[in-house]
Design a protein that fits this description.
Acetylcholine Binding Protein, Chain: A, alpha+beta, single chain, 2 domains
Amino acid sequence: LCSEEEERLVRDLFRNYNKLIRPVKVINETVEVRFSISLIQLINVNEKNQVMTSNVWLELKWFDYQLSWEEADYGGISIIRMPQEKVWKPDLVLFNNADGNYEVRYKCNVLIYSSGELQWVPPAIYQSSCTIDVTYFPFDEQKCLMKFSSWTFNGDQVTLRLLDDNKLVDLSDYWKSGTWDIVEAPATLNVYNNSKYNKPTETDITYTIKIRRKTLFYTVNLILPTLLISFLCILVFYLPAEAASVATFVYLTNAHRMAKVQQLIIEKLIIKIANKPLTL
């Protein structure tokens, strides 16, 4: 009986439904989309290419007046799940995408509630452009932005809001990175009123992911060996004159090791420091 009621409900809801049209009763109404993200994993921060790769869950909520029903008329059904291609969805994309894949790849279902509220929670792996400044490497902090907005709708057609007025990225399911610590991750709703330019309003939500590099690995494998090599180079000058050949060998060996360390740093960090090329 329940499946029959659900089948009848779906048939009634989508009989005259057009997913190509914004869910508004009059053309000048605005669709309000509430939006948030959960950061699940910081997969990689590529310093050379200045790209942050992250695993996130998006959450979008909006109302579609055409997809509401009286629960009592359909056996008490309060929620149904439909393929995302069956309904109208806001075309939110990551504007500072670094790999050209703007769409959410996994086609997860949309939850439709009897009130007409729709909830869509797709997972996504994003590569976002991030300006990297390694002036204080390896004791550096970075700020990587993720800017989301509608691709084709202006703010008068689709406006964004922070879901539940949450001004932080949700980190409750975050898997800690072995390289970076999350310092903070605030969210900012930006509204651009362009009326004086005779242009429509624009809105976006920007997340600022502030990360701090974990220094233990670099301290053990880079800083301490460099200090030791430098100390050995200084000790060479305290060797007696009779040990000139030994001193020369030790000095050249340590100089070679120092050059190898510098080469490793250059290979990893051929990027800009405060808009100036990194040179060693």
